[in-house]
Design a protein that fits this description.
- The chain has one helix and seven strands, in the order αβββββββ.
- By secondary structure, it is an alpha+beta fold.
- The protein has a single domain, classed as OB fold (Dihydrolipoamide Acetyltransferase, E2P).
- It has a seven-stranded mixed β-sheet with strand order 3-2-1-6-7-4-5, with no helix packed on it.
- It is globular and about 35 Å long.
Amino acid sequence: MRWNRTPLAVGLVIGLTSVAGPGLADTKHVEGVLDTVDVQGQHVVIEQTHGRKYKLPLAVNADTKVTTASGASSLSALHVGDQVTVTYGPSSTGAVAQEIQVTKPAPSK
């Protein structure tokens, strides 16, 4: 007797999609400039620089990865005017930054 593996493969794909799919599908990316960095309030505001211009407020939590030119960092290392690429997703209280990567530091004053 020969087994048809198609139903098994389809079931595996559906199972993996239901586990990994929702989190990946809800993730978004934005490139822009930091307009606001609030360390105490744990949030940032990104002004999008590509396409339609708008300001995007994002919460920051303990799981948010912050990366600068020197490597892994923290929210306190970010500065207004830094050019960033941000990965974010939904949460129960609004959008939350999952990763903030500084692509070009703000000019020194």
